[in-house]
Structure formats: C-alpha cells, structure tokens
Amino acid sequence: MGTNYKPETICIQSGWTPKKGEPRVLPIYQSTTFKYENSDQMGRLFDLEDTGYFYTRLQNPTNDAVAAKITALEGGIAGMLTSSGQAANYYAIFNICEAGDHFICSNSIYGGTFNLFGTTMKKQGISCTFINPDASDEEIEAAFLPNTKAVFAETISNPSLVVLDIERFAEIAHRHGVPLIIDNTFATPINCRPFEWGADIVTHSTTKYMDGHAMSVGGAIIDSGNFDWMAHKEKFPGLTMPDESYHGIVYAEKFGKTAFIMKATAQLMRDLGSIQSPQNAFLLNVGLETLHLRVPRHCENAQKVAEYLEGHEKVAWVNYAGLKSNKYYSLAKKYMPGGTCGVISFGLKGGRDVSVNFMDRLKLAAIVTHVADARTCVLHPASHTHRQMTDEQLTEAGIAPDLIRFSVGIEHAGDIIADLEQALAAV
Ligand SMILES: *Cc1c(COP(=O)(O)O)cnc(C)c1O
C-alpha cells in the first residue's frame, strides 16, 4: 500500500491494512505458531511453495506489517525486522559473504559495527578492509580484491557525524559488481532515502529514532530490489546457486527482486534466529507513527544547540553538518536538505577531563548509553561505547578523545540550552 503516499502518510497508514471487522490498530500476534487445515498446507509452506505464517522465528504478521511500513518509507521492495541493529548489519553482510570473502567498510561507523566487522566476523573467515569515507575514488578502489562482495557505510556516521557521498560510493561499488549497503539509522528515511542515490540495501537500528522513545531494541533490513545478483552469478553463489538446505532452491531465480530478503528470512533467520519479538515490533510501530513529526523537531533543536555551542568561548570545536562551517555542510545539503539528525558532537577547551566534568554537571541531559530518542542525552564515546578501541583507532574513526556526543531531544530548545549553559558556567 501507498507507493504514492508521502512519508507523513506512510508513517501513519502503511503496513497494517485491516479488512472488514479487523482491528483498526495493528494487533500484536503474540503467538509462536499458526494453524493449518491439513498437513499438506503446512508442507507447502516449508517448501516455500506457498506464503503464510508457520513459526514466529521465521515470520510473524505484526513484524511483517512494521517491516512493510519501513520498506515503504525507504522506497524499497522487501524488508524484514531483526532483534537489533547489530543483527541487521550482521545478516546484511552474512547473507552475501561467507568464509573466504571480503568486504569494504567505511572506518567511520558505529563502534558496535566496527567490532562486529573487524573482529567477530574475521573469526568466521570474513575479512573487512576499513577505508576513509573521504578518500579518493582511486584509494577506495585499491581496497577491492577479487573476493570483495559488498561495500558498507553509514549515511551519517555515529558518532563522528561524517556525511557519506552515497552517490559516489554507489558508483564505485557498482563499477566492481557489488552492492552498496547503507546503515541509515541516523538520517532515517524522513531525511534521506539512500535508494534514490543508488544504494542497494539499507539497514537500521530501529532502537534509535524509529522507536524514538528508548523502549525497544530492534533492527531492520530493506532491499531496493535493484541489485542484479544473476548478472554477477559467480560472486554471489548463496543467491544464485542451489541452497542444499532448502531442497536446492535458487533464491535469485525463484524470488527475483525479493531474493535477498527471502534468503535472509528462510535461511539466516531460520538458522540464527535473531527475530524481533512481536511486542517490540508493536512498540516500534507506535514510534514510527510520529517519526515524521519528531525527526524535524530533533533537527531544529540540534541546529539551535549547535549554533549556541559554536558561539561559546569554552567550546573548542563543534561538529554538526547543519553548521555552515562544517566540512560536510554541502554534502548534507545535497543528501539531507531537510536536516541531518539530532546528534551533535563537540569538545571543550581543556580536553578530555574537562569534557567529562562538564557532562557530570548536566541536569536535564542524562548520561545514558543511548542516542537518538525523545529525551536529550549525552555520552563520552572514548569512555563508553568505544572503550575497546585504541586511541589510534579512535582517531582513525574520527573520534577525538574529548568528543562529547550530545543527542538533542524534542524538549524545548531553550531548556536544553539553559542546561548546557549552567554546566558550562561550572567548568
Ligand atoms: C545503535 C546503532 C547500531 C546497533 O544497533 P542496536 O539496535 O543497538 O543493536 C548500528 N548502527 C548504528 C548507526 C547505530 O547507531
């Protein structure tokens, strides 16, 4: 439903379309199992010959309705929910890479993803080369190997706030016959739809703006349907060759444009089981209904806070792509003309210790391991989320040791600024 609707309408109306006498509001299908009339009906589902629900580890109607809404928001063709953003990124890569394969990733990404790709997946035999997203085409192309299967980056990186030149990355990936996977968590489809710029697959940590209220951890994978797996048959045997664990199905042949999500569901979700609970999907859907109202407010507030900080004598630097002084201002204007996100990073004069002292004095902004929700919150990546990284890795990832990640909420901007002011006055 609703390919022609605007995002505001999709947020409210898409996904769940009740028929006669059905609940107006998306119900929580709190059931692990689904009933059939006879054994053959169920058998056909297991053979992927029929569509239908049989076990919630694979698919659940509540989850599917919410995935359909996010798919519509992104302008994709198929989508699925996962238990977390971590699971979404893991599945997105593991769906096309196996032991012996390689992929390329921006070095400015979320710390959890950095560990997953750089350490854990390496133990599974999948290697990753991290590249600077601002490197020249030649430098990035030099990272491609014969076994490279994908390129991965974030629209706006968490927490370094690098804005990706998506179009350029899509062109590079496609020149080498591989898909571009974009983690669109910070921008959300309200601010940027990476498929319009050539990205092939989008992932989300729905834990952030999509849920928006810091209530449930979740993730999503959306496919544009644009990448032609069969045109690169040798590169992607998992999609283009028979799956022995599924009676020899060839996903790309049987499912065409929806092959990527079908495989990730039928094979990866079946075997790894990182499903989102229908209860969480229901809460996520409530969050999505106001995404189009909240995201612009986050951006408006963040712009005011960034401008305030930039003018403050105790502030050493501010990083926010909405500031004219920012390195990524013009890229942000191109890809996110309506605003980037509510997250700002900055450092205080005097360095790391002053930054930590300042954070402890904030009253409204809470110190929490979270970002991108309705309540203003703050975090020091070097002491918290990115603790495992060496100073060298931190610097490479664009995270100064004094960097404060400030996630601007949707309270009154004046109250947020007043809180900053009293804490700044005290350090
Ligand atoms: C938080 C985050 C993740 C991980 O998501 P979880 O839901 O916490 O597992 C991945 N990518 C980005 C950009 C994030 O901000």
What is the string of helix and strand elements?
HHHEHEHEHEHEHEEHHHHHEHEHEEHEH
Mean pLDDT: 95
Globally, the shape reads globular
In this entry the ligands are:
pyridoxal-5'-phosphate
Q: Please describe the biggest sheet, giving its number of strands, its sense, and whether it closes into a barrel.
A: 7 strands, mixed
Topology:
Blueprint: H1 7-13, H2 39-46, H3 61-74, E1 78-82, H4 85-94, E2 102-106, H5 111-123, E3 127-131, H6 137-141, E4 148-154, H7 166-175, E5 180-183, H8 188-191, E6 201-205, E7 219-223, H9 237-240, H10 251-255, H11 259-272, H12 278-289, H13 291-310, E8 315-319, H14 329-335, E9 343-348, H15 352-361, E10 366-367, E11 377-379, H16 391-396, E12 404-407, H17 413-426
Parallel strand pairs: 2-3, 2-4, 4-5, 5-6, 10-11
Antiparallel strand pairs: 1-7, 6-7, 8-9, 9-12, 11-12
Helix pairs in contact: 1-3, 3-12, 15-17
Bound molecules: pyridoxal-5'-phosphate.
Report on the architecture of this protein.
- By secondary structure, the chain is of the alpha/beta class.
- It is 38% helix and 13% strand.
- The protein has 17 helices and 12 strands.
- The chain has helices at 7-13, 39-46, 61-74, 85-94, 111-123, 137-141, 166-175, 188-191, 237-240, 251-255, 259-272, 278-289, 291-310, 329-335, 352-361, 391-396, 413-426, and strands spanning 78-82, 102-106, 127-131, 148-154, 180-183, 201-205, 219-223, 315-319, 343-348, 366-367, 377-379, 404-407.
- It has a 7-stranded mixed β-sheet, with helices on both faces.
- The model has no long low-confidence stretch (mean pLDDT 95).
- It binds pyridoxal-5'-phosphate.
